[in-house]
Amino acid sequence: MPSPQETLGKLITGDNFFAEAAADLSENIFSPSNAVLQHSQRADKGLELYRQARSKTAVEWFYINITGNKEIAYAILQEANKNDIPLSLAFALAYVESRFNPKAANKNTNSSVDRGLFQLNSYSFPHLNETDFFDPAVSAKYGMKHLRFCLDLGEEEVTALAMYNAGANRVRRNNTPRSTLNYVDAIMRYRSGLESTFSNEIARLYQPETSKSIKLAMIK
After folding, report:
1. Do the beta carbons of residue 169 and residue 105 sit within 8 Å?
2. Domain range spanning residue 90?
3. Which residues form a coiled coil (predicted)?
4. Number of domains in the chain
5. Residues 161-168: contacts with CB within 8 Å, 24+ apart?
6. Per-residue model confidence as pLDDT tens for the chain (220 residues)
7. How far is it, in rounded angstroms, from Cα 119 to Cα 139?
8. Are 158 and 181 in contact (CB under 8 A)?
9. Sign of the CA dihedral with 141 first, then 142, 143, and 145 last
10. N or C: which end of the chain has fewer CB within 10 A?
11. pTM over cut 0.90
12. How far is CA 115 from CA 103, 110, 149, in A?
């Protein structure tokens, strides 16, 4: 699998302006302390714990508090689980796309409109009506399916996120704009913070050593 640095290199357009901008961004994104590189060094425990009966409620509680909305948290959790997407990635994507606002809307220069929790595009999802776009469950369903498609096509997360934002064809033509590179960086930075908080508040409670200590305490 290519390194994050190599992946970014493949996304850089041939245009000098974007090449220079991407080179500058590359230095920031892939410095040893950066969120993208840090993430590549540790696994997301969220989905694993969500799938365990003993820890599922704690994971739900955590993400309800992150989003501030039970309906939104449940929608993302359920669809991320169905599509085998790390929870931290799913929630970081929703945060950068809409700040967890299911009513968010943005009109593009090509007259299409991005709507809802995962900012689904009206041209890409013509079968959805306006009510569908603003329904958290519907947005999460199609947002996670599309991210799964991008992950399968791009084969790793940096490329997949770029495809989600700029379109698969544009990324595959090495014509990724700087705005997309900034977008990927924003997601990875938020994700890194999310994972750190989750590890401290939830994951540490379900380590094998912790569980063993709790059982021994109960016996005593």
Report:
1. no
2. 4-219
3. none
4. 1
5. 161/93, 161/187, 162/11, 164/93
6. 554 444 444 554 444 433 343 444 344 433 433 544 444 445 679 999 999 999 999 999 999 999 999 999 999 999 999 999 999 999 999 999 999 999 999 898 888 889 999 998 888 898 988 898 899 999 999 999 999 999 999 999 999 999 999 888 888 888 888 899 999 999 999 999 999 999 999 999 998 754 444 444 445 4
7. 8
8. no
9. positive
10. C
11. no
12. 7, 15, 19
Output the six-digit token pair for 194: 């999310």
Q: Which residues, in sequence order, are CB contacts of 92 under 8 Å at separation 6+?
A: 187, 188, 190, 191, 194
Residue type, 65: N
The token pair that represents 175 in the structure block = 């014509």
